[in-house]
Amino acid sequence: MDENKPRSPTDRRVMVIGAGVAGSAAASALVDLGASVVLVERSRSLGASESIHGNRNVLVLAGTEVIWAERDGKFRMEVEAVQDGCRQRAVHEVDAVILATGLVPIDASLIPEFGLGRHADVISSQQMEQMLRSAGGIRRPSDGGPVSTAVFVQCVGSRVEKRGVPYCSAVCCAVAIDCAIKIKERDPGIGVYILYIDIRTAGKGQEAMYKRARQLDVKFIRGQPALVSKMPHQDRLLVCGENTLLRELYEIPADLVVLSLGLREDPENLDLFRGLGVELDREGLIESAPSALSVMTSAKGVFVAGSASAPMCADEAAAMGVQAAHAASVYLASR
Ligand SMILES: Cc1cc2nc3c(=O)[nH]c(=O)nc-3n(C[C@H](O)[C@H](O)[C@H](O)COP(=O)(O)OP(=O)(O)OC[C@H]3O[C@@H](n4cnc5c(N)ncnc54)[C@H](O)[C@@H]3O)c2cc1C
Question: Which of 91, 205, 283, 310 sits between 20 and 30 A of 59, alpha carbons compared?
């Protein structure tokens, strides 16, 4: 390119990694700001990003993973797509990168006493949400039988120093309460318990949800269980622990136990972050400047958006995507 010729905005390419709400919002905003975008999404479905599919300034790579990156003036980003069983690799050169890679649940085998992966009727909150969306209704995954008691266990592998992550997952209390309300609204006869350390419902409308759940007779018990086990000679589960408010032990026979698992950076992305020069903080999250929604990482030209920076709700993730697009645009203009 002729160095003296002024660059048009679309000469500058930004790679957005992840097409969740944050990545989709970032990609749309970048297009509005005149940049050209390479949007890479590991899964085949694009969700919120469908609307920018077909825009001539956006190259969408679905079913493709960014596996490695290095910097040599520009960023050289290596991607891998799996098509018809064949792996195809390619390298894209870009001027800036937005990490919108989200978080993944912690490995539940770290906390074997809650039985996820061992008892079919112990599920994650993601699986509970899927069950509520499905036509099949609220059934025991083990045998399709009816559920008379469901128990939600909060902070599984979050807010801990060992066997998980030290920070709060921010959305799990509201998610559990929302699921509990939906269960009660469908079948008031199902007993629903939420076992918590603290209930955190600071988001808009969440306190009202908490009140509604109590009106619907969802039982809140402070104190995580010590053990979830199979009841002797029965198909049901037994959830045992201590109610730390009343200082008494509880034993709850249950058909379904739902774990709110802590969220962490995807271990598969750690090499990629390293290649980009992006550091993690003491809690294992992408290090960013110490303001609540800061999009600046420790590496120049690399920005972070959405829950990749810390757990947050979808609206915040989308807002952060737009903020990251603006920061990337200012960065490109200054070069
Ligand atoms: C169980 C549960 C229920 C929730 N319910 C709600 C709710 O009701 N309301 C609400 O507001 N929020 C809810 N949240 C929070 C909400 O899911 C997040 O705020 C939102 O998903 C964050 O969006 P994001 O774009 O940052 O990350 P994500 O939605 O996680 O998107 C990240 C994307 O990046 C892709 N990716 C990662 N690494 C790579 C790579 N190397 N290459 C290519 N692609 C990659 C992933 O495939 C993924 O699609 C819930 C969270 C959980 C865990």
Answer: 310
Give the position of tokens 């993601």.
126
CATH level 2 (architecture), domain 106-263: 3-Layer(bba) Sandwich (3.50)
Listed by start position, the domains of the chain span 9-103+265-333, 106-263
Question: For each of the chain's 335 residues, which pLDDT tens digit applies?
Answer: 444 454 555 578 999 999 999 999 999 999 999 999 999 999 988 766 666 777 889 999 999 999 999 988 899 999 999 888 889 999 999 999 999 999 999 999 999 999 999 999 999 999 999 999 999 899 999 999 999 999 999 999 999 989 999 999 999 999 999 999 999 999 999 999 999 999 999 989 999 999 999 999 999 999 999 999 999 888 899 999 999 999 999 999 999 999 999 999 999 999 999 999 999 999 999 998 776 569 999 999 999 999 999 999 999 999 999 999 999 999 999 88
Q: CB count, 10 Å around CB of 6?
A: 6
Task: Please return the burial class of 81, using the count of CB atoms within 10 Å of its CB with bins 0-12, 13-18 and 19+.
Answer: middle
Q: In Å, what is the CA distance from 298 to each residue of 280, 287, 325?
A: 9, 6, 17
> Looking at the whole model, is its pTM more than 0.85?
yes
Ligand 1 pocket: which residues have CB below 6 Å? 17-23, 40-43, 65-66, 100-102, 125-126, 129, 171, 175, 266, 269, 272, 306-308, 312-315, 317
Would you say domain 9-103+265-333 falls under CATH 1.10.10.10? Answer: no
Residues forming a β-bridge with 16? 39, 98
Residue length, the chain? 335
Instruction: Give the chain's count of helices (H) and strands (E).
Output: 6, 18
